[in-house]
Amino acid sequence: MLRTLCRTGGAILLQAQRPAPRLLVTPVQQRWASSLPMNTVILFVPQQEAWVVERMGRFHRILEPGLNFLIPLLDRIRYVQSLKEIVIDVPEQSAVSLDNVTLQIDGVLYLRILDPFKASYGVEDPEYAVTQLAQTTMRSELGKLTLDKVFRERESLNSNMVHSINQASDEWGIRCLRYEIKDIHVPPRVKESMQMQVEAERKKRATVLESEGSREAAINVAEGRKRAQILASEGEKAEQINKAAGEAQAVIAKAEAKAKAIRMLSEALTEQNGNAAASLSVAEQYVSAFSNLAKQSNTILLPSNMGDISGMVSQAMTIYSTLSKTSQKLPPKELQEKMEEPLNHLESSEEQRTP
């Protein structure tokens, strides 16, 4: 009986020391995967690891980080799960886009084990299962997009991948954090056509920008000419207005000066010896009119007694005396016109005799 018990205990101990078979996809995963420890009664579990313990072949409990005690021969550490974030390289695969273009695409998958129990008993190899799920999901998502959208909507494609993987991996106790596309390879002919398309698009943009520049330049030139004509017309208008205002002010000033002169003349005639002063002024104008006859025309009209200056003055004074008799009956303005009539009559008679 004792011998049978010892043999059974030895077999259980050897089975506990034997590592459990695991399917490791890539050598990268071997860095975080740990070997199954032996049951030494007193165990120290590292941080960010979960040890799944079976008692007599049935799940018993999950050891927490730190000090733990197990019963020898009955308890066995069946699985060791890492709770750290795991990085899995998704192998390159071929996929067909919506416009029937074959693409070669690979990516990187970031995941974490949230439930060690489901990760141990829900699937045989959780990492391998998630990798295969990522490949199939990527083919399905690429089949919904055209080639141009695959390059433009990589962020939305990654988010759709994460959502689809999480829907299936919840039963495995694994949470996909993110998925990143590493590289996308297209056939050489498709790449050449894409380059030609890019060149054509750039030429189109250059042509459009050049035409827009020409249009803006023409608009600016037309606007400049329009503004120049408007400013020129406004300047001419302002010049005419100023000229008319100046002429109006000159006429007003001339009329005011003439009115003032007439007013002063009428005041002077009413003073003492005003008649004598008026006689002197008329005589001076009479003599000046005869002196200008030879300067304005070739025909000269001379009086019979040209050498008799006193007679000429007497004649002028006679004209003034005739005007002075009516000065009391006429206003100053009409009086001035009467005084200028002999001189004007003399000048008009000279013009009529000019051949």
Write a compact overview of the structure shown.
It is found in: Mitochondrion inner membrane. The protein has 355 residues and is an alpha+beta fold.
Report what the structure shows.
The protein has 355 residues and is α+β, with helices and mostly antiparallel strands. The chain is built from ten helices and eight strands. The strands form three sheets. A three-stranded antiparallel β-sheet has the order 3-2-5. The radius of gyration is 62 Å and the shape is rod-shaped. This is Stomatin-like protein 2, mitochondrial.
Q: First CA to last CA: what distance?
A: 177 Å
Strand order of the largest sheet: 3-2-5
**What proportion of the residues is helical, as a percent range?**
55-70%
User: Strand-residue fraction?
Assistant: 15-25%
Low-pLDDT stretches are 1-33, 349-355
Q: How would you sum up the major sheet?
A: 3 strands, antiparallel
Q: Please, how many helices?
A: 10
Helical/strand content category:
alpha+beta
Query: Rg from C-alpha positions?
Result: 62 Å
Order of helices and strands: HEEEEEEEHHHHEHHHHH
- Identify the overall geometry: rod-shaped
* Beta-strand segment tally: 8
Chain-averaged pLDDT: 76
